[in-house]
């Protein structure tokens, strides 16, 4: 399976990943090689095999539904690049 | 004092012959002298370490210390540490100071451990050579032009160069065991869920697992004791009771059935590495273990399955880096989409970008069943192989890596060649099983690792076998000529 630079552009858009024009061709080549590596899975007969999402699926546990966290907004927002009055600032979304 | 094992240092600290403050100052001097050539530490917290050491000395003085009180370690820079930076080897988190500690950090702090600093790593734990760190590659202490392995390459180099008593690491596809093998140290990836992932920057959540790296299996047992345990903050944390890992170390291995997968000695394995591992297996046999050939028929599918599952989970996990709440933000964004795209484009390095893209692709509409679902089915087959093998044997043994440490730059242009480093290690992550690597020889002056894999929750057995092996060999006690 070979990916084109247009494919890379559309995947990068899905992942909201900005790429330089000159990186597109090498990425198309690298990703095509990766897809060739994983292609061999298609030859495996997995009829009736239940997909394994997680090694711990049997051990998931529930906790009591009680308040366990207190308000730490200032502490948790401290690493944010831009804040005002406790809100995260982003470029204007609504004109 | 740096050439002593953690267990030996702990005994000296307990008896009062050694002060934690002295040990910490000694390591800080060594770090200042040796780290510039190695780049194993990204950050050293001398002031914090001295404070923790002084507290530990008080506790030891009162006779209230435990086996880890006053022991100086390095944390892989993937573990969040309140007050000092957590970069995860990425420009994205270059200036990130976490607002809380990882559970592993909290637990080890409570056990009296001293944090010397944060260890270098491949960006977001993606890599097998530590060359993917935004902050520069790490030199292998055995030969400086060689890679230390990855992604816990800084941790492995710290332990090999004796710049701390031990270090923490994480392992998603071999990231504790492979660098342990390349640097001649001992490392264990516990059973999935044994060590809390809370505050450990996520790469692939169904595969990630933290664990200890140290000079000996005995030291790993002590450190793992401090790290393991159920955590309400990690929904996948296991509530299986944590045994006393040190209590089983000396158990006789006479009659223990060791499975040797024929697939591990096939194509791709360097012949000199194979010889070292075969000799290690012969040693275990002389100690009374019974060797038995087993088959893991789907072994060849592990790397392909892994390189669908891990990037898929990574592309989802790394979507949190949006330039809004924390991490790198681009200058003068035109609009929200520009903010996302440029912040992520500037913040992530090439390997992280490759994996986000391949993950986004395999999860996208129309491809999900062909790739992601298929890989999960193969994952089940890989897991079934182990279940079948463990009906016949108690533990599985083989090489940790196909070769010894390679030269820096040798594989940077070939992602697939780099991925094949994980050939023997990814299966334990896919299956959630515990795996350990211990030094078992040298090829041309470079260490070789013996890998042991056990059924879920049998870390004690791995540590037991490795400790017995280390009681009758001295590979683990060799140290690089460059560090004194």
Give keywords.
heterodimer, A: 95 residues, mainly alpha, 4% strand, flat, B: 484 residues, alpha/beta, Amidase signature (AS) enzymes, eleven-stranded mixed sheet, 11 strands
Distance between the termini of chain A: 43 Å
Output the structural class of chain B. Answer: alpha/beta
- The percentage of residues in β strands of chain A lies in under 5%
Overall structural class of chain A, as computed from helix and strand content, comes to: mainly alpha
Give the overall form of chain B.
globular
Order of helices and strands of chain B: HHEHEHEHEHEEHEHEHHHHEHHEEH
Short structural summary:
Chain A has helices at 5-14, 24-39, 73-77, and strands spanning 83-84, 87-88. Chain A is mostly helical and 95 residues long. In chain B, helix 2 packs antiparallel against helix 3 (46-61), helix 9 (302-317) packs across helix 11 and helix 9 (302-317) packs across helix 12 (369-392).
Describe the structure.
The complex is a heterodimer of chains A (95) and B (484). Chain A is mainly alpha-helical and 95 residues long. Chain A has helices at 5-14, 24-39, 73-77; strands at residues 83-84, 87-88. Chain A has a domain at 5-41. In chain A, a hairpin with a 2-residue loop joins β1 and β2. Chain A is flat and about 55 Å long. The two termini of chain A are 43 Å apart. Chain B has 484 residues and is α/β, with parallel strands linked by helices. Chain B is built from 15 helices and 11 strands. In chain B, β2 (72-76), α4 and β3 form a beta-alpha-beta unit. The longest helix of chain B has 24 residues, at 369-392. Chains A and B meet through α1, α2 and α3 of A and α9, α10, α11, α12 and α13 of B.
